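JOB MANIFEST
job_type = single_chain_structure
chain_count = 1
residues = 113
[input]
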Amino acid sequence: MSKGPYVDARVLKKIAGKDPLKSGAIKTWSRACQIAPEMVGFTFGVHNGRDFLEVLVSEDMVGHRLGEFSPTRKFIRHGGQMQKELDQKKKESEIAAAQAAKAATEAKTGDKK
């Protein structure tokens, strides 16, 4: 026998009678609360232990928990020589792309005159 989904009564009380478009983020600490169909369209501020991360609920999220969309750990990045080389290549490609875009816009303005 199944107990059924756990939906926090306080969360349902907060969204009762509200318009999803007009109401702001609804703050909640209830990460274990399952997302019900009534919650679709609302923005929830889900607490991750430090601050509230905004989660816009869509139809695909129904049945999942609110806490799944508010990660508690922050990944910075892996370090080391390999990471430095990757960052350098990325920076060089961004500079090259910016120069190409600038040259293209100068060519367009030069053609019009």
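[summary]
The first helix runs from residue 9 to 15.
Strands lie at 26-28, 43-47, 52-56.
exit_status = 0
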